[in-house]
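Sample pair:
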Amino acid sequence: MSLNASLGLQLGSLDLDAHIAVADGEVVAVLGPNGAGKTTLLRCLAGLVAVDRGRIELDGDVLDDASSGAFVAAEARHVGVVFQDYLLFAHLSALENVAFGLRARGVGKAEARGRASDWLDRVGLTAHARYRPQALSGGQAQRVALARALVTQPRMLLLDEPLAALDVGTRGDVRRDLRKHLDSFGGATLVVTHDPVDAYALADRVIVLEAGHISQQGTLAEVTAQPRSRYVAELVGVNLIAGTLRAGVLQTDDGAAVVTAGDTPDGAALAVIRPQSISLYRNAPEGSPRNAWQCTVADLDQRSERVRVLLGGPLRLVAEITPAALAAIDVRPGDEVWATVKASEISTSAR
């Protein structure tokens, strides 16, 4: 492995305790809610914060070891960092910004400028070499920041929300460019993001960090197929219900019952319901479906040809229906509805 890190740090109310391993050439996305510790994790790896416990190794070299007191300063680590707001120096040109890291490492002015010029050419910004950051677009500034991180030939690349500052129209193009550059980088890469689309487009594997701990990891397909927390379920657009399973019926702490058709053994379990599998009725449905819950419409969110209906009650659910189906039941926030789903449409797994 290129990176092998056990990170333990108490910072205010955050208790970071995570083990991360990333292979050479692998891109790992770190997902998690606000306050989960994602940026703190990157700051530990970059050498901006020392760990209280644990050890960080990069290609076998110890960068931080709480037990021995070993610590390599940020400027001495072979690590490139792209911050969320890029942190370009406003008084320097694009060329000088890219050359800055080399100059800080003692590289001569002429060589640093030559290597910086090569990287600006790689990211397609040769014509903008003399521009200062305020004259660059968001996408151009992101590419300058990436060039500055890569020009020093790092063994690890850390990107903190690298696309968050971009508008929707620019984001897709810059995302494709970024993926191209990451494909050519031979070291370990970690990308912090809130966007599952960015994770899907950029990363080989994802790590979900919640309250300082890794709650799930794997490929995005593996994580979305078996979400292990409400955050992941909401992130990937499915309903996640936790409870205790007995004879095919999942009982939640709030008293709701979910009838399933799987063969998950009794005990603590999770049920996953796709929003598209939920049907809504204004009145109690006929035929006594196995799963029927009376809910309150909390909100409506129309997206293209589908409407997401947020439901409150014993089960907090998100249903996805067509505009025609919404018009047929004629509901608004605050109205009562019945939600039904077939047992065969519910997947379960042990917790």
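The chain has a mean pLDDT of 91.
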